[in-house]
Design goal:
The chain is α+β, with helices and mostly antiparallel strands. It has helices at 14-23, 30-49, 56-61, 76-84, 96-101, 144-156, 172-177, 191-214, 223-266, 277-302, 316-356; strands at 89-92, 110-115, 118-125, 128-131, 140-142, 160-165. The chain is elongated.
């Protein structure tokens, strides 16, 4: 698409844009087209003068030129004479004579279209057709199957369509598109549509700035900013909750450590001594051995003579008491852990309730 020459509309110079887009280059300027228009006016004046310079037709002809005006409009005669320089001629596509020829539009090379003093070109470049209307922001790709429908639609809207006959000058876009085909995802907009959108965006921006100035920027948070503020508030609340939970865990841990110290203090210990784990183990073994010896002596006193005892048996009463003590200790630890869990769940529930509010 970048290789295609496309002049955009300036003033009322659509005839100039039409010719340059057809020839794919800056071949004509307003000055050159004006010169052709003046030449045509002079030729027509000379023919009218043959009937008498005092005739009504001649005086009517001396009115402003019909081949151009101050806005930049040029007639079909100007365009036709400009194309004769390149050996090109125009044939009216709408005429019954041409329609009877039955020529498929796809076999032509280019068309010039006119409606209400607006001219634009439809040309084949390479193997594809393009609408080179200067009112568009860029070339519009036209498929082969759509070309006939496009021209028929223009006829229904009142356009005059001319077939350009002759060899068009070589151009870069035609050579390039002979080798590749282009695709167009979106139709180019009309220049008026693009300008209207830009104007609307500027108006909306001005209105927004005026509202912000009137409110001095306070209390005018949009939805995105409000969502951001809510997200930040929830984030800070979750951080506070985590800090509270961490503090509670540390407090419970310290409390458990304090309870362990109190239990250890309730156990009789030799004053002024701190026993290691190895010393405690040895004392526990000595205690069990002493208990075992006492039970063996009691067993020997109660058993009849000749009955052997079983020194390998361990005192069941002592082990039962030890299991009971261990069970009590485990139960107390489970109860404490359950209380800790309930405390944490209560804290989480309170913080979630406050966050919803």
């Amino acid at each position: 698409m970048e290789s295609i020459f496309h002049e955009k509309q300036e003033g009322s110079l659509c005839a100039q844009h039409c010719l340059n887009n057809l020839l794919q280059g800056e071949y004509f300027s307003p000055v050159e087209l004006s010169s052709i228009a003046h030449q045509l006016d002079e030729e027509e004046r000379m023919r009218m003068a043959e009937g008498g310079v005092t005739s009504e037709d001649y005086r009517t002809f001396l009115q402003p030129s019909g081949n151009m005006d101050d806005s930049g409009f040029f007639s079909i005669q100007v365009i036709s004479n400009a194309l004769k320089v390149w050996g090109l001629e125009l044939i009216l596509f709408n005429s019954p004579e041409y329609q009877r020829l039955g020529i498929d539009p796809i076999n032509e090379r280019s068309f010039i279209c006119n409606y209400k003093e607006h001219w634009f070109t439809v040309r084949k470049l390479g193997k594809q057709w393009f609408n080179l209307n200067s009112l568009l922001t860029g070339p519009e790709l036209i498929s082969d199957t759509y070309l006939a429908l496009f021209l028929a639609q223009l006829q229904q809207e009142g356009y005059s369509i001319f077939v350009v006959k002759g060899d068009l000058p070589d151009c870069e876009a035609d050579q390039l598109l002979q080798m590749i085909r282009v695709q167009q995802m979106h139709r180019p907009k009309l220049i008026g549509e693009e300008l209207a959108q830009l104007k609307e965006q500027r108006v909306q921006k001005t209105d927004l700035e005026r509202v912000l100035e009137a409110n001095d920027g306070s209390g005018m948070l949009d939805e995105d900013e409000e969502d951001l503020q809510r997200a930040l508030a929830l984030s800070r609340q979750e951080i506070d909750m985590e800090d509270e939970e961490a503090d509670l865990r540390r407090a419970i841990q310290l409390s458990m450590q304090g309870t362990s110290r109190n239990i250890c203090q309730d156990i009789p210990q030799p004053s002024g001594t701190h026993l290691t784990s190895e010393e405690l183990r040895k004392r526990r073994e000595a205690y069990f051995e002493k208990q075992q010896q006492q039970q063996q002596e009691q067993q020997q006193q109660q058993d009849p003579p000749g009955q052997l005892t079983h020194p390998c048996e361990k005192p069941t009463a002592s082990s039962g008491a030890l299991d009971s003590d261990l069970g009590d200790a485990v139960s107390e630890e489970d109860m404490l852990q359950a209380a800790v869990t309930m405390s944490l769940e209560t804290v989480r529930s309170n913080f979630k309730t406050e966050g919803k509010k």
